[in-house]
Design brief:
The chain is an alpha/beta fold and 417 residues long. The chain contains 13 helices and 22 strands. The protein has an eight-stranded mixed sheet with strand order 3-6-2-1-9-13-14-12, sandwiched between helices. α1 (16-31) packs across α4 and α6 packs parallel to α8 (217-226). The two termini are 45 Å apart.
Length: 417
């Protein structure tokens, strides 16, 4: 019998009725002769409520260790609830099922609370249970440190849990969500967005890191590293007629027949711009800035350094996630005397818009098309970054949707009228 990992997102677990419908999809795979492990997210909106409660309590008092570890204890409980409810539902349907919490597998992670990375999964006991015909139900988003403290894997971490379990079991992974695949852009912004039949690991990695909400970045990294076949499917189907229909396959580039210059347009509003004015034009000053940010586990994305009227000073601009903006600014102020910059500014009213495609490697003029389309709409660029297969620009948040639609049209990505 073949094994399969199935992951259901928050909208697929939103209430008992949705859980029953998702369980019916699981039951259909079991009836088809597969050994199934199910990874579940919390009910839609529940994690936000849990985070809000921790925010309302506030940080630890001075002299007391920070509360990131207890934050993780709270915010991972949503997945524990849905894993139990899914196992109960499957048993009610006549299937043998049991839940496996993060510490029971165990899913070992580092201790970067709030955004921990999976280090290892011991899938031996899980595999034996599946071989015995028991459906495994696993809460996503959670791990456990070597010191047996619960960790959260970061928002969207259930995707990473699912791919990691699939890698440990050596099997494919189906991600069920509220959309039927990966689109050329967010259909809620551009109604003529097209569903892509296949997307390369590299393209999906860029799209996920740039704001596409379909998959978490680290889940794609794991899939690419361990060659885990991943499909994105909709759970809003009739399991008797729509099981496995449509969807998008995430695969190697050479498995894609249709070669595209640009595959998609992504956007992210979860951005903050940090500007250091009057930074001494010394290599050690810039190195110190990013060393301190790295030590604090603050991820930096776009970086721009520009000259000032004084030859011995520069201005340094970089972006971080909006949640990290205040921490990054406070950290910069704490080293101000050490590196002697003049001023630190924070701007959270920005957004990042990106175009992605493996065809950029072999086609000229991609950047010109992007900049011309934005210029025609009067959209000013605040920063630019590029890689081999993507171009990203930072813009005023007010122009986000206009920019997405303009770029989608400029690259001819829309469905035929």
């Amino acid at each position: 019998m073949s094994r399969l990992v199935m992951k259901f997102g928050g909208t697929s677990m939103a209430d008992l009725e949705r859980i029953r419908k998702s369980a019916a999809i699981v039951a259909a795979e079991v009836a088809a002769g597969r050994q199934v492990a199910v990874v579940v997210s919390a009910m839609a909106g529940q994690t936000n409520q849990l985070v809000a409660w921790t925010d309302q309590i506030g940080p630890a008092a001075p002299g007391v260790p920070d509360s990131d570890d207890e934050y993780d204890v709270v915010v991972t409980t949503g997945e524990q609830i849905t894993s139990g409810l899914m196992a109960l539902t499957l048993r009610n349907m006549g299937l043998h099922a049991r839940s496996w919490l993060g510490w029971q597998l165990p899913i070992r992670s580092d201790d970067a609370h709030g955004k921990a990375r999976i280090a290892d999964i011991d899938g031996e006991a899980l595999g034996r249970s599946m071989d015995a015909g028991v459906v495994a139900v696993i809460p996503g988003f959670q791990g456990v440190t070597e010191g047996d403290r619960v960790t959260a894997l970061g928002r969207g971490g259930s995707d990473t849990s699912a791919v990691a379990v699939a890698a440990a079991l050596g099997c494919p992974c189906d991600i069920y969500t509220d959309v039927d695949g990966v689109y050329t852009t967010d259909p809620r912004i551009e109604s003529r967005a097209r569903r892509l039949d296949r997307v390369s690991y590299e393209e999906m990695l860029e799209l996920a890191s740039l704001g596409a909400k379909v998959l978490q970045t680290r889940s794609v990294e794991l899939a690419m590293a361990y060659k885990v076949p991943v499909r994105v499917l909709s759970s809003f189907v009739d399991p008797d007629t729509g099981l496995g229909v449509g969807g998008t396959v995430i695969c190697e580039e050479d498995e894609i027949v249709e070669k595209r210059i640009v595959s998609g347009v992504a956007m992210s509003r979860d951005e903050a711009r940090i500007t250091l004015l009057g930074l001494p034009d010394r290599a050690d000053a810039t190195a110190t800035v990013f060393a301190r940010l790295g030590e604090a586990n603050i991820n930096v994305d776009m970086i721009v350094q520009s000259e000032t009227r004084r030859a011995d000073l520069t201005n340094l601009v970089f972006t971080v996630g909006r949640r990290d903006a205040r921490a990054a600014a406070d950290l910069m102020e704490s080293i101000r005397a050490e590196i002697q910059f003049e001023e630190c500014r924070v701007d959270e009213d920005v957004a990042k818009v990106s175009v992605v495609g493996v065809g950029m490697r072999s086609h000229a003029g991609v950047a010109e098309t992007m900049f011309r389309a934005l210029a025609d709409k009067g959209i000013k660029l605040l920063a630019i970054s590029t890689s081999e297969i993507k171009i990203s620009v930072l813009i005023d948040a007010a122009y986000t949707e206009l920019a997405v639609r303009a770029l989608h049209a400029a690259y001819g990505l829309a469905e035929p009228a």
